[in-house]
């Protein structure tokens, strides 16, 4: 163990891999010292583990209805979080629903930021009319409230999980483009970019190898902080019946189904609400911690 | 024929509301294997001249020729292998997220040169850094070590001309001495031509054969080294720079 | 008369990479005179200056056997007492005016802020006093500078504004951390003569921190030479050029001189005994 940490902390790494792992280890140490960030990381990891082992963890089938066991309150034997209006176990639905949430998050996280990063760095690096055109397009997307735009898109494309993800991705890339462009503008005039240009590097090499690594931290931080919003929009679409279709146990759709009983059987809507709240909080805490770890301005020494 | 010839060079930046003419009608010529110095207070356009040579500043008039050929508008790979630059601030001129290894092998990759490993190790030893530093990040090095890396990077493509923009002004006196010695050694070994900028007359005097004094973007006076030591300058401005120079202050 | 006396000052930082001892056992006394602190970067000059004002942020810690300013024990003083001392009786000019002036406040406003809040002056009086302070640092057009934003000032102007700001409350001790390092030689000389004049006429104590030995030799009365957090040599400034310690000698000899020989400059030998 101590030889491993020594190897990781070696000030003169002997290979690229050791250098990279050593940096990652230092980041991890910095993250580890931030208690809130560790809590956030714990929540996010818990979500991932629950989603992976959902079929094993869920005590009941999330879809099969049992009308005799309708609307049982929490802490009933066999149903720790109670049951919903079709007699389905809420805990099982939450557990299986975590897969849908994670699926949406992952799909959005690999599409919107990548696209935004590309648009932002290209606009920032080239400047001039390319910048004008790309940023005006970005502004158009930014001008609409996210949920409204997502609603309009889903209304056109039809409800469903893939369309919901697409709609969310299309509405959430512009802020990443803005962040990346701002970062690019400060990086592009720096001496290390001038140096690599002077060595004959082309635009693709400079943007990909030199500018993107500098924009990545701000974008990653932004993505983690935005994940709470993504979950909420997905839930909102589900709530309005435009996202994941019943009987799939999507958290937003579950709240929507429970709102009829909000006063007498409060748990039907509250339990999925708590799940959304917890996961959103987890991502926010993690994002805040990552800001301290990844932000190049903090990692000088 | 001089290796670097600059005729009547003007550089104009389009700042937000007005145009800033950073360099006005400057001419100079540097012979092969010569070391030429530019001095002047900050903002006098010294760095801008070096950047204009590299195509990093907007030229609004005049010509730049290298070995008799006007420099192409897009500088291109041939230019990169001929002319390289060392920047003033070693804290800003190395990519903070790239290892030294990556920084030094990048020019080789761009130009498709073989033997990356051997060349990187040799470049490090040439500038007096242990090969163990190869996989460090810039923030794990001191200012002087970073500037050595920047010099090594500039020499990766084996250029004949090195543009030096205040290469030691961010360094301590003791580290400055080591860096200047290194530059002089490399120049002698490789027959390099230096065009060097500094605000410190003593440094320029130590390094350069001829000196051009600049003020407000214009050339004020060109002096050979001997004339500087004997205080034989013709213009008042050059004389006031000389009088305010740190090692003069004690002379009395 | 001693204005400030410091005995066995230590400043340490607990970092990921272990404990960094920035200042290790520095002792000195200062009257109403100009004391220079020189040394390479990282030798602990800035931390020494900040420690006097107890301006070391965690994870940094200060330890000293004694630190007394004008009869007041600085180690025992509470944060409240320190705040009353800072600016009013001990002022510090930081290295880079860019980071010390508030970028979104006009220069005049910043100069007047302290006068109005601390001394309760009226707007008019504060304005008059601020203009006077700018004139004292040889700013030719104080009315215009009062209305300027910090980014509109050149380096030399910004540094003078900083000095003016620090001098308004008429402190007894001024700590100037590399006040001229970012300036051109011609401007440098001007700022120095302004400082010199102020110290003389107001009878202040001055701690002048710099990495430039020649500057300190010319400008100070007494010099402390620091290396790796320790004082290796203390001597009258006029004797600096005849310093005996190999470190001080090394720093002096490695500077190029106009008309000097073209041989390699002598480098500092860091393997010698004194460097441990
Ligand atoms: N990118 C730029 N945009 C606008 N003005 C610039 C730019 N770069 C330099 N300048 C201006 O050009 C002048 C000369 O600058 P520079 O060549 O850096 O001076 P020096 O290197 O002699 O200190 C300065 O007045 C500076 O403000
Ligand atoms: N926040 C900090 N954390 C760790 N080490 C620090 C910190 N601040 C300063 N140091 C260390 O203290 C030493 C002295 O610094 P400083 O007083 O700023 O030097 P100088 O002003 O002489 O250049 C340096 O070696 C530096 O690395
Ligand atoms: Mg310059
Ligand atoms: Mg300092």
In a few lines, what is going on in this structure?
The complex is a heterotrimer of chains A (301), B (252) and C (276). With 301 residues, chain A is an all-alpha fold.
Blueprint (SSEs and pairs):
The complex is a heterotrimer of chains A (301), B (252) and C (276).
Chain A: H1 2-9, H2 16-32, H3 35-52, H4 54-57, H5 90-126, H6 128-143, H7 146-157, H8 161-188, H9 191-198, H10 203-239, H11 251-258, H12 267-294
Helix pairs in contact in A: 2-12, 3-5, 3-12, 5-6, 5-8, 5-10, 6-8, 7-8, 8-10, 10-11, 10-12, 11-12
Chain B: E1 4-14, E2 19-30, E3 35-39, H1 46-53, E4 59-66, E5 69-70, H2 76-80, E6 83-86, H3 100-110, H4 116-126, H5 143-155, E7 161-165, H6 173-190, E8 193-198, H7 201-207, E9 210-215, E10 218-224, H8 225-229, H9 236-244, H10 246-249
Parallel strand pairs in B: 3-8, 3-9, 6-7, 7-8
Antiparallel strand pairs in B: 1-2, 1-4, 4-5, 9-10
Chain C: E1 4-15, E2 18-30, E3 34-38, H1 45-52, E4 60-63, E5 66-69, E6 72-73, H2 79-85, E7 90-93, H3 97-100, H4 107-118, H5 123-136, H6 142-147, H7 155-167, E8 173-177, H8 185-202, E9 205-210, H9 213-219, E10 222-227, E11 230-236, H10 246-253
Parallel strand pairs in C: 3-9, 3-10, 7-8, 8-9
Antiparallel strand pairs in C: 1-2, 1-4, 1-5, 5-6, 10-11
The complex binds adenosine-5'-diphosphate (ADP) (2 copies) and magnesium ion (2 copies).
In the CATH scheme, the class of chain B would be Alpha Beta
> What fold name goes in the CATH topology slot of chain A?
MetI-like fold
> What is the mean pLDDT of chain A?
87
Low-confidence stretches of chain A: none
Query: What would CATH call the architecture of chain B?
Result: 3-Layer(aba) Sandwich
Oligomer: heterotrimer
Largest interface: A-B, 29 and 40 residues
- Which CATH architecture of chain A is right? Orthogonal Bundle
Distinct helical segment count of chain B: 10
What would you report as the Rg of chain B, rounded to the nearest angstrom? 18 Å
Under CATH, the homologous superfamily of chain A reads: MetI-like
**What is the CATH homology-level superfamily of chain B?**
P-loop containing nucleotide triphosphate hydrolases
DSSP, total strands of chain A: 0
Strand content of chain A: under 5%
> How are helices and strands ordered from N to C of chain A?
HHHHHHHHHHHH
């Amino acid at each position: 163990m101590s030889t491993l940490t020594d190897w990781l902390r070696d000030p003169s790494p002997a290979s690229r891999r050791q250098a990279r792992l050593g940096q990652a280890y230092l980041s991890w140490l910095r993250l580890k010292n931030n208690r809130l960030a560790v809590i956030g990381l714990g929540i996010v990891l818990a979500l991932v583990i629950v989603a992976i082992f959902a079929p094993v963890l869920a005590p009941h089938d999330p879809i099969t209805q049992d009308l005799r066991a309708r609307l049982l309150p929490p802490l009933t034997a066999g149903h720790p979080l109670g049951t919903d209006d079709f007699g389905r176990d809420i805990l099982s639905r939450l557990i299986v629903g975590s897969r849908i949430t994670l699926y949406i998050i992952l799909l959005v996280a690999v599409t919107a930021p990548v696209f935004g990063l590309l648009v932002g760095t290209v606009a920032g690096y080239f400047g001039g009319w390319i910048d004008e055109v790309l940023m005006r397009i970005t502004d158009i997307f930014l001008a609409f409230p996210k949920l409204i735009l997502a609603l309009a898109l889903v209304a056109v494309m039809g409800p469903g999980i893939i369309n919901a993800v697409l709609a969310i991705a299309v509405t959430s890339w512009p802020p990443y483009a803005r962040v990346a462009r701002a970062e690019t503008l400060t990086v592009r005039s720096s001496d290390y970019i001038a140096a690599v240009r002077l060595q004959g590097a082309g635009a693709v090499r400079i943007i990909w190898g030199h500018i993107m690594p500098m924009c990545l931290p701000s974008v990653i931080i932004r993505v983690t902080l935005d994940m709470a919003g993504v979950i909420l929009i997905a839930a909102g679409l589900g709530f309005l019946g435009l996202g994941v279709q019943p009987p799939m146990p999507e958290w937003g759709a579950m709240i929507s189904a429970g709102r009829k009983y909000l006063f007498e059987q409060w748990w039907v809507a509250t339990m999925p609400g708590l799940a959304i709240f917890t996961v959103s909080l987890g991502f926010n805490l993690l994002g805040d911690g990552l800001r301290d770890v990844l932000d190049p301005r903090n990692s000088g020494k | 024929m001089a290796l670097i010839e600059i005729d009547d060079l003007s550089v104009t930046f389009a700042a937000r509301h007005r145009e800033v003419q950073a360099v006005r009608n400057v001419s100079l010529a540097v012979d092969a294997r010569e070391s030429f110095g530019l001095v002047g207070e900050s903002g006098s356009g010294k760095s801008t001249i070096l950047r204009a040579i590299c195509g990093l500043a907007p030229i609004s008039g005049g010509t730049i020729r290298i070995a008799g050929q006007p420099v192409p508008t897009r500088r291109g790979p041939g230019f990169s292998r001929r002319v390289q630059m060392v920047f003033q601030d070693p804290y800003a001129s190395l990519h903070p997220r790239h290892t030294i290894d990556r920084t030094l092998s990048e020019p080789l990759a761009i130009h498709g040169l073989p033997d990356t490993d051997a060349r990187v190790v040799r470049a490090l030893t040439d500038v007096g850094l242990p090969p163990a530093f190869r996989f460090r990040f810039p923030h794990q090095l001191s200012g002087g070590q970073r500037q050595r890396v920047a010099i090594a990077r500039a020499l990766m493509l084996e250029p004949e001309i090195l543009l030096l923009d205040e290469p030691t002004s961010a360094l301590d006196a003791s580290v400055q001495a080591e860096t200047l010695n290194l530059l002089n050694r490399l120049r002698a070994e490789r027959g390099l031509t230096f065009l060097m900028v500094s605000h410190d007359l003593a440094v320029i005097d130590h390094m350069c054969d001829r000196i051009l004094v600049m003020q407000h973007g214009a050339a004020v006076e060109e002096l050979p080294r001997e004339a500087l030591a004997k205080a034989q300058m013709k213009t008042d401005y050059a004389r006031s720079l000389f009088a305010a120079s740190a090692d003069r202050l004690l002379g009395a | 008369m001693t204005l400030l006396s410091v005995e066995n000052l230590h400043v340490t930082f607990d970092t990921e990479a272990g404990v960094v001892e920035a200042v290790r056992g520095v002792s000195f006394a200062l009257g109403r005179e100009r004391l220079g602190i020189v040394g390479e970067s990282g030798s602990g000059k800035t931390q020494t200056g900040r420690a006097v004002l107890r301006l070391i942020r965690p994870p940094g810690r200060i330890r000293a056997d004694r630190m007394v300013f004008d009869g007041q024990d600085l180690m025992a003083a509470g944060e409240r007492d320190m705040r009353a001392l800072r600016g009013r009786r001990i002022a510090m000019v930081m290295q880079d005016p860019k980071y010390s002036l508030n970028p979104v406040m006009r220069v005049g406003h910043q100069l007047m802020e302290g006068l109005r809040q601390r001394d309760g002056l009226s707007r008019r009086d504060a304005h008059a006093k601020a203009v006077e302070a700018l004139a004292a640092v040889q700013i030719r057009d104080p009315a215009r500078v009062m209305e300027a934003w910090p980014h509109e000032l050149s380096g030399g102007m910004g540094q003078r504004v900083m000095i003016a700001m620090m001098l308004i409350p008429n402190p007894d001790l001024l700590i100037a951390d590399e006040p001229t390092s970012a300036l051109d030689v011609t401007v440098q000389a001007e700022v120095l003569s302004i400082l010199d004049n102020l110290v003389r006429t107001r009878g202040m104590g001055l701690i002048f921190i710099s990495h430039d030995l020649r500057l300190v030799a010319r400008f100070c009365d007494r010099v402390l030479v620091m290396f790796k957090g320790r004082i290796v040599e203390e001597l009258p400034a006029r004797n600096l050029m005849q310093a005996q310690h190999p470190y001080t000698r090394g720093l002096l000899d490695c500077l190029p001189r106009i008309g000097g020989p073209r041989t390699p400059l002598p480098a500092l030998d860091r393997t010698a005994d004194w460097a441990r």
